[in-house]
Specification:
heterodimer; A: mainly beta; six-stranded mixed beta sheet; three-stranded antiparallel beta sheet; 9 strands; about 0% helix; about 45% strand; globular; B: about 120 residues
């Protein structure tokens, strides 16, 4: 049971926009920055979004993050076949004094 | 550019101690803005944060693992290490080391090692 809640799966067709949600609480998402990670099969996770909505250099603008209250979202526009991967959200939990992850969302490009 | 590389045994017997080292290259572990973390992933499952360490030795641990885990830094070798005691099959998985910014707030893990698979089996 993860502290942050994500849908286990999502899907879309090439060119579409897909949104993945991440629900937390007042001790984590509600007060701490959210980050998002992409994990391609057999690879290490890669930072996609930090500080809720900031993209590291090299991450395409098709990936965007947002946060409102205790929930956050990752949007992927212009979906491509290479976007098929697992996506995780994460945040610090001020009460637990620990990093917490969402359970992950498997994105399928149909 | 800064890179992280995990190393250690790929097989550990039940009840024994799992020991891994993360070597930092292309930069210093003595960063005032970053903590250094261990994260693991059981086969077919999601990411689990184990804990992290600052170059001064300050640490934070996952409450569910705290009684069995220790993370230490070695600034002279530009490394940090993980020990998990009394392992069981549930500790099997890929172990990653990563860098995390914590100034001004705890934020993303921006650099990851490639990961190392550890199996717990007799």
């Amino acid at each position: 049971q993860s502290v942050l809640t994500q849908p286990p799966s999502a899907s879309g067709t090439p060119g579409q926009t897909v949104t993945i949600s991440c629900f937390g609480g007042n001790s984590n998402v509600g007060v701490e920055p959210v980050s998002w990670y992409q994990q391609l099969p057999g690879a290490a996770p890669k930072l996609l979004i930090y500080s809720n909505d900031q993209r590291p250099s090299g991450v395409p603008a098709r990936f965007s993050g947002s946060k409102s209250g205790t929930s956050a979202s990752l949007a992927i526009s212009g979906l491509q076949s290479e976007d098929e991967a697992d996506y995780y959200c994460a945040s610090w939990d001020a009460s637990l004094r620990a990093q917490v992850f969402g359970g992950g969302t498997k994105l399928t490009v149909l | 550019q800064l890179q992280l590389q995990e190393s250690g045994p790929g097989l550990v017997k039940p009840s024994e101690t799992l020991s891994l080292t993360c070597t930092v290259s292309g930069g210093s572990i003595r960063s005032s803005d970053h903590y250094w973390a261990w994260i693991r992933q059981p086969p077919g499952k999601g990411l689990e944060w184990i804990g992290n360490v600052f170059y001064s030795g300050s640490t934070y641990y996952n409450p569910s693992l705290k009684s069995r885990v220790i993370i230490i830094e070695d600034t002279s070798q530009n490394q940090f290490s993980l020990r998990v005691n009394s392992v069981t099959a549930a500790d099997t998985g890929v172990y990653y080391c990563a860098r995390q910014r914590f100034v001004p707030q705890w934020d993303g893990f921006d650099i990851w090692g490639q990961g190392t698979m550890v199996a717990v089996s007799s």
